[in-house]
From TrEMBL:
InterPro entries: NNMT_TEMT_trans (IPR000940), SAM-dependent_MTases_sf (IPR029063). Gene3D superfamilies: Vaccinia Virus protein VP39. Pfam families: NNMT_PNMT_TEMT (PF01234). Keywords: Methyltransferase, S-adenosyl-L-methionine, Transferase. The keyword Transferase applies. GO terms for biological process: methylation. Belongs to the class I-like SAM-binding methyltransferase superfamily. NNMT/PNMT/TEMT family. This is Phenylethanolamine N-methyltransferase. PANTHER family: NNMT/PNMT/TEMT FAMILY MEMBER (PTHR10867), PHENYLETHANOLAMINE N-METHYLTRANSFERASE (PTHR10867:SF18). The keyword Hydrolase does not apply. GO terms for molecular function: methyltransferase activity.
């Protein structure tokens, strides 16, 4: 069915030139020839690191692995959720999420070598709480955005 997303999908297909697998738990998360030798100018991670890390050390390590993909002076835009304990990847498929607070995220960033440029923490408005995780964890619907 046609809708606003049809147009957005078409635009995206015009600008995305490749889709490659990544595993943030590997010390080399991408295949060696994917990025230029100097590294990426910018990386964006959206609701990924906390939702694929079983605990805080694993989250911190994933940040460190990601940093190695950036060129010196490159930027990471990290978007994630605070205080989640799991999300539903499908009916009955509950994926554990490391529940982070702001201080833990800042400490993990520092430990993995990032310089924090900007931090924004906000609460989702009720009409955006459509995902099950937001319904289940209404008390912790803070979303964290970090710019490096
Ligand atoms: C909660 S979803 C977020 C998806 C999307 N970015 C969004 O904002 O809706 C978490 C994503 O992490 C990806 N993922 C799972 N394990 C991963 C890993 N080891 N390394 C990198 N990404 C992983 C999954 O494929 C999934 O798309």
């Amino acid at each position: 069915a046609k809708g606003p997303w049809t147009e957005k999908a078409a635009k995206l297909r015009q600008v995305i030139t490749d889709v490659v697998p990544i595993d943030v738990h590997c010390s080399q998360p991408l295949a060696p020839d994917v990025l230029p030798p100097s590294g990426a100018d910018c990386l964006v991670s959206c609701f990924c690191l906390e939702s694929v890390s079983p605990d805080l050390p694993s989250f911190t390590r994933a940040l460190g692995h990601t940093r190695k993909l950036l060129r010196p002076g490159g930027h990471l835009l990290l978007i994630g959720a605070l205080g989640e304990s799991y999300y539903f990847a499908g009916p009955g498929v509950r994926i554990p999420v490391v529940p982070l607070d702001e201080a833990q995220v800042c400490a993990s960033l520092k430990e993995s070598g990032y310089t924090l440029i900007r931090l924004e923490v906000y609460t989702l408005p009720p009409d955006m709480r459509v995902g099950r995780q937001w319904i289940i964890r209404e008390q912790i619907e803070n979303v964290l955005t970090l710019f490096f």
